Amino acid sequence: MHQRASEFAERAHERYGVDLEVLEFDAGTKTAAAAADAVGCEAAAIASTIVVELSGGDRDGDGEGGRASGGRASHEDLVAAITSGANRLDLDAVAEHFDATSATMGDPERIREVVGWSIGGVPPICHDETVPTVMDPTLGTFETVYGAAGTPSAVFPIEPDRLADLADATVVDLTES
Questions:
Q1: How far apart are alpha carbons 85 and 63 in whole angstroms?
Q2: Burial of 137 (0-12, 13-18, 19+ CB in 10 A)
Q3: What is the pLDDT at residue 124?
Q4: Domain containing 97: what range?
């Protein structure tokens, strides 16, 4: 097993007391379509974790929002959205939900620095820093969903309700209609 996938499984056990089955695929699972092909499920059952950066609104300033002194962004301006692989995240809806002026895709270096995982393999749980998390209700229509397990070639199966619980995620539709 890839070192990062093993690290993910160990973190899940240590932090949440769960033993997750990590599935690895030579073809890779970097996109929802690739993951669905590898696993043999619908793309909609893939739980993609997208890290978004918020700005403006109640998130600026030196209070509790998201800018550290000196104007440098802190981890508090990042949020994670766990979306169904069949849906597209609506960044405007994310900004509105979190009382921000705007939301953009997170910078890959900041994601790695704050969340601890690289894009393409960001899991929905086991982040280095706690970030607010939302989850697409579409995932709840499946018995099992598959989230990234720390690398672009590893996923883990989990019941959607259990995933929402472990991720401390608010279930809310923030996808494009």
A1: 35
A2: middle
A3: 97
A4: 3-171
In a domain, residue 65? The reply is yes
Residue 70 pLDDT greater than 70, yes or no: no
Confidence of residue 75 (pLDDT cuts 50, 70, 90): low
Three-class DSSP category at 49: strand
User: What confidence category does residue 60 fall into, taking pLDDT thresholds of 50, 70 and 90?
Assistant: very low
Looking up residue 38, the CATH number of its domain turns out to be 3.90.960.10
Residue 53's beta-bridge partner residues?
78, 104
Contact at 8 Å (CB) between 39 and 155? Answer: yes
The number of distinct structural domains making up the chain is 1
Count the neighbouring beta carbons within 10 Å of the beta carbon of residue 101.
13
Domain assignment present for 176: no
* Model confidence pTM above 0.85: yes
Residues 6+ apart with CB under 8 A from 121: 4, 30, 148, 149, 150, 151, 152, 153, 154
Q: Mean pLDDT throughout 94-98?
A: 96
